[in-house]
Hints:
- Helices cover 83% and strands 0% of the residues.
- With 114 residues, the protein is mainly α.
- It has one domain: Orthogonal Bundle (Helix Hairpins).
- Helix 2 runs antiparallel to helix 3.
- The longest helix is centred in the first third of the chain and has 30 residues, at 3-32.
Amino acid sequence: MSAGEQFLNGAIILALAILSLSFALIIVRIVRGPTLPDRVLALDMLVAVGIGFIAVIAVKTRSFVYLDIAIALGLVGFLATVAFARFILKRGRHKHADYGNEAERPAQEEGTSS
């Protein structure tokens, strides 16, 4: 085993350890929240860590077919994040009918007090 292969194996082990630690921390954030946007962001990071795992395994096995899977997972993760964001936005509109009109609110209040 050459020095380059030893370095690569050490880097792979280190990368897998860091990805495993970040995976555990992300799971804690998903469970604890405290808000829905925090959970959505954690799910997005979970997809990113999954892509990292797939990329490291692709390097370890020297089978770069896995990179196509990582790209597809990235696209699906992006679409899921956009869908969650739209869900949060629509959910907020049901609670607050004038969501997004904060700039107009002081002008309306001044007009009613005169």
